[in-house]
Amino acid sequence: MEESVGSPVTGMQHVGKTNLPVDGQPVGPPSNRSQSSVKLQKNRIGTARRVFDKVFLYLNGWVWRLLPDSLMMTRPILRYGAFLHFYVQRRSERSQYHGTFFLRNRPELELIRTLANQKKIGASLKLAILGCSNGAEVYSIAWIIRSARPDLKLILCAADISTEILEIAEEGLYPLGANRLMDSQIFERLTEEEMRGIFDLEDGHVRIKPWLKEGIVFRVADAGDPGIIASIGTQDIVVANNFLCHMVPEHAETCLRNLVRLVAPGGYLFVSGVDLSIRAKVANDLGWTPVLDRIQEIHNGDPSVRRDWPWRWWGVEPYDGKRSDRDLRYAHLFRIGEQLVAEAIAGSTVK
After folding, report:
1. How many CA atoms lie within 13 A of 128 on its CB side?
2. Of 235, 237, 343, 331, which Cα lies nearest the Cα of 279?
3. Same domain, residue pair 53 and 185
4. For a 10 Å CB count at each end of the chain, is N or C smaller?
């Protein structure tokens, strides 16, 4: 029998690996009642926190709506708005969302047309759209380019991680009313003339005109997959809009560092709908060159995300021209140099 040694602090006797209290009864694991008490306490704390968040944001929203327009761009209000947006982002459970619009950001589309116009007559233009959702952005870009430059050979790859939504995009058939994955809002930014130019009418639906669908390949692909460059190849222009903001920040940053490898040396990357701090950090780390043409117009070009700031995680703050980092923070378009692409590929390979 092992010698027992009494504990002057706990009144316990330690016999080998078994703890015995002074009355000789073994000490077991916490009782079920104790575990239930801890779980109940955690649930109460979680409930109290959710109630506090709801009340805090409600009261702030009520006050925010009372603020006059003259105050909205003042430094104190911008800083408090940034705090509220950070608060919302930290407490939101982000998830992917398929809501979008045709011709969503007109200044951005005009800049894409400007880039296309730099191509020589009859040249090829390779363009990839990641997170293409229901195809509204795909066909908007195809319409802008082909209307301005019908001579170009547009090679367009549209990719999304969702097979279900990609099937809708590839078919190019949209109900005029709402359905489970889309709603009629997707047409709200189009004029009647644009509707006639992009669609054919079919029994309560509209279908993308055949000439716009030519040369478009739809692929199921994950923008965060290191193997995406092998399946899609390098592109003159890569568009990565409005899906990174729905990822947790760490995943969004990793994904952004990965997808830039698709840009050919000297090519262009459009990236919006992402936490501004993440985009600025990656752009600075990798030495991207921001394109400043129409920077403020493009930043404010999607009224829906501007209107949602600071109350939704995807909301976008007002353009603040007084910030020292405004070029990297607010640019939606970056040029990727040859050396930068090589370094991005090498860094991804190492990882």
Report:
1. 28
2. 331
3. no
4. N
- Supply the Cα-derived Rg of the chain in whole angstroms: 27
Q: Are 104 and 140 in contact (CB under 8 A)?
A: yes
Asked if residue 40 belongs to a domain, the reply is yes
Tokens of 301: 């070009």
- Is residue 96 one of the residues assigned to a domain? no
Show the CA angle centred on residue 192, arms to residues 188 and 194, nearest 5°.
85
pLDDT digits (tens, 9 = 90+) for 268-307: 999 999 999 999 999 999 999 999 999 999 999 999 999 9
Residues 159 and 261 in one domain: yes
Structural domain total, the chain:
2
What crossing angle do the helices spanning 136-148 and 106-116 adopt, rounded to 10°?
50
- Where does the chain show beta strands of DSSP type E? 5-6, 13-15, 18-20, 124-130, 153-160, 173-175, 199-202, 205-208, 216-220, 235-241, 263-272, 289-290, 333-336
Summarize the confidence of residues 319-342 as an average pLDDT: 86
Task: Tell whether 61 and 111 lie within a shared domain.
Answer: no
Task: Please tell me the distance from the alpha carbon of residue 165 to that of residue 113, in angstroms, as a whole number.
Answer: 26
* H helix and E strand count, the chain: 15, 13
Residue 57 sits in the same domain as residue 111 = no
- Residue 283 belongs to domain with CATH number: 3.40.50.150
CA-CA distance, 333 to 270, in Å (whole number)? 4
Task: Residue 268: count other Cβ atoms within 10 Å of its Cβ.
Answer: 21
Q: What percent of the chain has pLDDT over 70?
A: 84
